[in-house]
Amino acid sequence: MSPSKILFFLCFSFIAGIFLESLMKIPQVFLWAFLLSDFLLILAFLFLRKDLLVIAGFCFLFLISGVIRAQISEFNIANDKLSKFNDKGQVVLTGIISNEPDVRDTFQKIKVHPVKFAFNDASLEAKQFNWIKISDSTILVTTKRYPEYKYLDTIKLIGNLETPMVADDFNYKNYLMKDHVYSVMDFPKVELISERHRYSIFSYLYDKILFFKEKLRESIQHNFLPPQSSILEGTILGDNGAMTNDLKDKLNITGLRHIIAVSGTHVVILSSIIMSLLLAVGLWRGQAFYIAVIFICIYIVLVGLPPSGIRAAIMGGIYLLSQKVGRQTIGSRLVVLACAIMLLINPLLLIYDIGFQLSFMAVFGLIYLEPFIEKLIKKFTKDKVKNFVTIVAITFAAQIFTLPIMVYNFGNISFVSPITNLLIIPIVYWLMIFGFLASAMGIFSNIIGWILSVPCWFLLTYFVKVIDIFSQPWMGKIITNVSWIWLFISYSVISMAVWFLNKKYSQKFI
């Protein structure tokens, strides 16, 4: 067995351990007993030169390690200092805004990294606080739309810390938990202490990136009206704050919501299109790979380095690397390795981060299914439409592998998704190019920005027209209370189909 294949099984075992801990709570006394027994068995197998059994022993060791890593994360959450004051009355704290504020029509959501904290109702009246230093927590604050706050601003908050809600249809607590947010504060009294506190070179650079992003947003809003402006902001900036609920519903019905987001599917499809275009103009695959990776990195920095974007960039890079080396087994092993590393850092991603799940499944779809779909379509088409065939194959492969997760979590089924994606995906590349040029030049000159916005306006008008035509209520359906059995059956069928195709065309599965 090759070293890369052994590493694949070790990483997969670690991921399985984290998943196992999410299903059942294993007492630590049993874990230590399993570890000791497994260690002794590995020594015995080494002495007997039973290589496969040694590998199996290490796989079990990594599985237990995954369980322990998940339990460490659970322990840290249970012992978070700040969350102990949730739902216990009024508090006062000072902190630094640790991310770009999420600005909506009537309110804004701000992530605050507390520096000092006090809990004492009497001292709140007298303004004599018994400060406690807090350095490892994050609070999600919902406050009024104005005044506006910026990344790195230092603010003081007076209000009630609360535990995020848990409803029948949505567990907000688990949704925030993956981002290490265990407390929320709704509409507290906010006082600005200082603006843009720069505490590292990375924070300073990130601050400048967000400043440039804000200028791009202002330029878009100056040259375009809703819903075109909302679509363009989402496409090139990953910003959905200005998008109306009506537009979101239409995107869900048409199956185009993934385009208006910085997701794994979005970045992987986009990087694949770029790769195809670079190859079409005569570049070697190696040259196209490096240019495409550089483009992905620049794009993720542009949208402000969100966690979902960084994860999507990693997935896109892995997919492009598997294309470069021309071996799908290398790609699948790298995906599992990347997954294990991310879960080592934050094991909560596996269960609570839907974007994490979609990113990996989209890449698996492109690695395992896209080549076969492309071969099938090429039998009925000509070489002149090669790029279009690639786009079609990419779209279908990513959607097939991500559909079960989308249905399970959101219950949205679009009957027209294949059609709408075929109509929209080919213009995404040009929409991003013209949209970025128009918004960037619009920062320096309104006239030049307006001139460059004309081709972008035609593309956006076409986009909106497709959405309007294919967003009739009967073209989509919402299913509630989808069972986990749906996931099991769906991915079992997909796995068997992929295994059959790989066997038929004599390709390795892992």
How would you concisely characterize the structure shown here?
This protein has 510 residues and is of the alpha+beta class.
Question: What is the strand and helix layout of this fold?
Answer:
Layout (H helix, E strand, L loop, with lengths): L2 H21 L4 H21 L2 H28 L11 E8 L4 E2 L3 E12 L2 H6 L5 E2 L4 E7 L9 E7 L11 H6 L3 E6 L2 E6 L6 H23 L4 H10 L7 H10 L9 H17 L4 H18 L4 H19 L2 H18 L3 H4 L1 H15 L1 H9 L7 H25 L1 E3 L2 H28 L1 H24 L6 E3 L5 H21 L6
Parallel strand pairs: 5-7
Antiparallel strand pairs: 1-3, 1-6, 2-3, 3-4, 3-5, 6-8, 9-10
Q: First CA to last CA: what distance?
A: 12 Å
CA radius of gyration is: 25 Å
What is the averaged pLDDT score? 81
Helical fraction equals 55-70%
The helix-and-strand class reads alpha+beta
What share of residues are in beta strands?
5-15%
- The coarse overall form would be globular
Write down the secondary-structure element order. HHHEEEHEEEHEEHHHHHHHHHHHEHHEH
The beta-strand count equals 10
Number of helices: 19
Query: What's the quaternary structure here?
Result: single chain
The total domain count is 4
Main β-sheet, in a few words?
A: 8 strands, mixed
Low-pLDDT runs: 122-126
